[in-house]
Design goal:
heterodimer, A: 430 residues, alpha/beta, six-stranded parallel beta sheet, elongated, B: alpha/beta, three-stranded antiparallel beta sheet, 14% strand
């Protein structure tokens, strides 16, 4: 079957993770995703933490800043950065600086011929560039524009500066996780918000498209990533609005099952286990060769087990500590117990289930080399989904400018001479 | 007019991931018929309970996940139940289910059978590990999916156990991914006159998640380093949670913002001091320990809200760490009218989350609270499928509804 979004054109001004995740999903469904990238402004943490880091700088960076092949930024670091290449499949890249003379007019010409504009910059960026909805709706009344700053496009915090981890703290989610025996200084900043935002933005855009099909009108979608994410913590919110209870972290424990993350043999190897029913517990005891325990009154029934959770943890740990975590997972699952090894990257890449399902796609990227990419987030029985490598900067200039926007060869050459069209950041960009 | 008005979703889901998927459809105006067993779906007993009273109509998780849906009951272990389901399948545009993969085929309702009943049906399967593969029948919890698929291994502090996200978020994310696929495939089905079948593995949604994991899997291949449990930094300036007078504040400061940070600390003078500031304006890493002291003291002298206000005044990314109580009181979310009110016949007036995204028109609406068990049996079975009231009574006595 044909891809459902074939023929849909998306102008993509997204950065980092959240917005690019949304366009990744749309691209997988057949939409044409055109990333518009300025050669004069290096987007925050999108094609690198720095535009042209030296090898020495890369080696001193934290985990995400250093992610280049062999820790070598190479001649074109912006084409070799893992954050970008991991989400960039099926996308096109055209260089265009909206703030340079003539840039906005070029952008308008692209917008005229497009269905969707999506961006997740700070709220003020579209104002600064002169590309707010008030302006663009006159350029293309059928355009659907989605803008997803962390805290939305209005309200007292509208111009707040922050990453997903900032919003995670401000919106109360950080207060719900963590070790129960230490204070928040041991919390690490997380980027769950980015993951939550992608599918919600895609869904909102698809919903607006249905409206447009009926009425011919486009519209503006204001998405606060924080508000979307709050939908994922319903129970904590409801416990407060129903009962006035302010929830805190549970560590890795559950509210009723026996659950935890247990250390296994080897260095930093862990197993997550969830034991709910009496049958689950009996099965665990059999596997751990502790049939004596399934008759022990401390652990006989689920309530007693939960009350003796610390002792149960010791029993479980005594078994897990002497066995490989993946082997333990297999044994427990065969016995009908819910268990999962925490998979680090090599273990995930080698995982039998992901490989049996063809989850990884081996691709040759012209600047980064050959690697196995995490693939589509769903399988379709009758429809083949695309997987083309993430685009190098400006890779699709000819197509976007000549075929989509419709510039002549002369204009194209002029724009190249002016530095609008190119495939490298301007020398002064850091 | 709402965006998904007229779209019919047959919802066989239970627990979290499936209902979260169908909630997106319901909230945007689709008709979602939620099918529960006569004894109620599992999330009705998972709490939190209004007034701490474990009543199936007072359960916060259920109330949150099932807004705007119609609710019927069907016992799918009976032939009559399956027959009624078949009639609903014929009328649906989308079917969503998150049973263990063996269940539907075991009821004689594999994809081929579903498409025989309704060739245009968009079938959406959500499961732990997918409909195929060696782990197909494995059991899982939110924690296990998070641990196997996602970034649990690299979450927390290095010298102790990894620490998870709050329960349920991973399942919600998976359900949301399924909803985007299903809505797109609905367009496909309408264009082509035939529906496809979508197989969402929660494990795979995590393995490819934008919360670092997809990046980590590629980065490992680039440089051979596994992702460690450590504070995410973007440079050498403050990153993490810092103690304020009355709680904590979170900062993540890019190197390029050193001048902003210095001004925030009231120490613009440091920008002229070569011990602190290099040529070109970047922070001198040699002064890091001294900066840390200065920074800790500055934060701890202020309330978390003062910290945030002053940081933001200089455009430094620092935010207060809110409790859920702080969140509900927060002026920003209130000013945006984010919180919605639903009236539920048993649980009463409910304050719940609002729109995940705001369309200018035709988007999210808080139409109705989550359904009572079997609330719409009359409307659907009598009103739409043509059973008589007497039939309905008999169905109930037989335990079919």
């Amino acid at each position: 079957m044909q891809l459902p979004l074939k023929g849909l054109r998306v102008v993509d001004l997204t950065v980092i993770w959240a917005g690019p995740f949304a366009t990744e999903l749309l691209g997988d469904l057949g939409a044409e995703i055109i990333r518009v990238e300025s050669l004069y402004h290096f987007q925050t943490n999108t094609r690198g933490f720095l535009c042209r880091p030296s090898k020495e700088q890369v080696e001193m960076m934290g985990q995400y800043g250093r992610a280049y092949p062999d820790l070598d930024p190479g001649e074109r670091p912006w084409d070799r950065f893992a954050i970008f290449n991991a989400h960039g499949r099926n996308k096109l890249s055209a260089s265009m600086d909206i703030s340079r003379p003539g840039g906005r007019e070029l952008f308008f010409r692209l917008i005229e011929r497009s269905d969707i504009l999506i961006e997740n910059n700070a709220a003020r960026v579209k104002r600064d560039l002169g590309i707010t909805w008030d302006v663009l709706k006159n350029v293309n009344p059928r355009l659907i524009m989605l803008s997803m700053p962390g805290l939305g496009n209005s309200g007292p915090y509208v111009d707040y500066q922050g990453f997903g981890s900032n919003v995670d703290a401000l919106a109360g989610l950080a207060s719900l996780r963590g070790y129960t025996d230490s204070d928040p200084s041991t919390l690490s900043g997380i980027f769950y918000m980015d993951a939550a935002s992608g599918p919600a933005a895609a869904f909102a855009l698809l919903a607006a498209l249905r409206l447009r099909n009926r009425t011919g009108e486009g519209q503006f979608i204001d998405m606060s990533q924080a508000e979307n994410m709050l939908g994922h913590v319903g129970p904590a919110i409801m416990d407060y609005t129903l009962n006035g209870r302010v929830r805190g972290p549970l560590g890795n424990r559950d509210e009723y099952s026996i659950q935890g993350v247990y250390p296994c043999a080897g260095q930093d190897c862990w197993l997550a286990i969830t034991i709910t029913t009496d049958a689950d517990w009996a099965a665990f005891c059999r596997v751990a060769d502790r049939d004596d325990l399934s008759a022990d009154p401390r652990y006989l029934d689920a309530m007693s087990r939960y009350q003796s959770h610390d002792q149960v943890d010791e029993v479980i740990r005594a078994w897990t500590e002497q066995i490989d975590h993946r082997e333990a997972m297999e044994i427990l699952q065969r016995a009908g117990v819910a268990a999962g090894a925490l998979l680090d990257e090599p273990a995930a890449l080698a995982n039998p289930q992901l490989n049996a399902r063809g989850f990884f796609h081996t691709m040759d990227h012209p600047q980064a080399g050959r690697h196995r990419y995490p693939g589509h987030l769903w399988r379709l029985a009758e429809t083949e989904m695309p997987f083309r490598c993430a685009p190098c900067l400006g890779q699709d200039n000819e197509y976007v400018y000549k075929q989509v926007i419709g510039v002549s060869d002369e204009e194209y050459a002029r724009l190249e001479a002016q530095g609008q069209i190119g495939d490298a950041y301007a020398p002064e960009v850091r | 007019m709402q965006a998904l008005e007229g779209v019919r979703v047959l919802d066989l889901t239970h627990h979290i991931a499936g209902p979260f998927c169908t909630k997106q459809f319901a909230d945007y105006g689709a008709e979602v018929i939620k099918v529960e067993p006569p004894w109620g779906e599992i999330s009705r007993r998972l709490g939190p309970f209004a007034g701490d009273e474990p009543h199936p109509e007072k359960c916060g998780l259920f109330l949150h996940l099932n807004t705007n849906k119609l609710g019927i009951t069907l016992n799918l272990k009976t032939r009559t139940g399956i027959e009624i389901l078949g009639r609903l399948i014929r009328q649906a545009d989308i079917l969503v289910e998150n049973f263990a993969p063996r269940v539907l085929p075991g009821l004689g309702l594999d994809d081929a059978a579903l498409h025989l009943l309704n060739p245009r049906l968009v079938i959406t399967h959500i499961s732990n590990f997918g409909q195929t593969g060696p782990y197909r029948d494995w059991k899982a919890s939110d924690l296990i999916i998070h641990g196997m698929g996602g970034v649990l291994q690299s979450s927390g502090v290095e010298d102790r156990e990894p620490i998870r996200l709050v329960d349920g978020m991973i399942l919600c994310q998976g359900g949301n991914i399924a909803s985007a696929a299903a809505l797109a495939m609905l367009t496909g089905a309408e264009l082509q006159g035939a529906g496809d079948s979508i197989d969402v593995s929660l494990f795979e949604t995590q393995a490819g998640t934008a919360d670092r994991r997809a990046t980590d899997l590629l980065a490992f291949q680039y440089h051979g380093e596994v992702t460690k449990r450590e504070q995410m930094t973007v440079g050498v300036l403050p990153a993490g949670y810092f103690a304020a007078e009355d709680g904590f504040a979170y900062f993540l400061v890019m190197n390029q913002w050193w001048p902003r940070l210095a001004r925030m600390l009231g120490r613009a003078d440091l920008l002229d001091d070569p011990h602190w500031t290099l040529d070109g304006g970047m922070f001198n890493p040699a002064a890091k320990e001294e900066l840390d002291v200065l920074f800790y003291v500055w934060v701890s002298d202020r309330t978390k809200r003062q910290v945030m206000v002053e940081a933001q005044a200089e455009r430094v990314s620092g935010t207060a760490m809110s409790s859920i109580a702080d969140l509900l009181a927060d002026e920003h979310f209130r000013a945006r009218n984010f919180w919605e009110t639903y009236d539920h016949p048993v649980a009463g007036r409910l304050t719940q989350t609002g729109a995940p995204a705001r369309l200018s028109w035709g988007g999210f609406q808080a139409r109705s609270a989550a359904p009572l068990l079997g609330q719409d049996n009359v409307r659907i079975l009598v009103g739409r499928l043509g059973y008589s009231r007497e039939d309905l009574g008999r169905l109930r006595k037989l335990g079919i509804i």
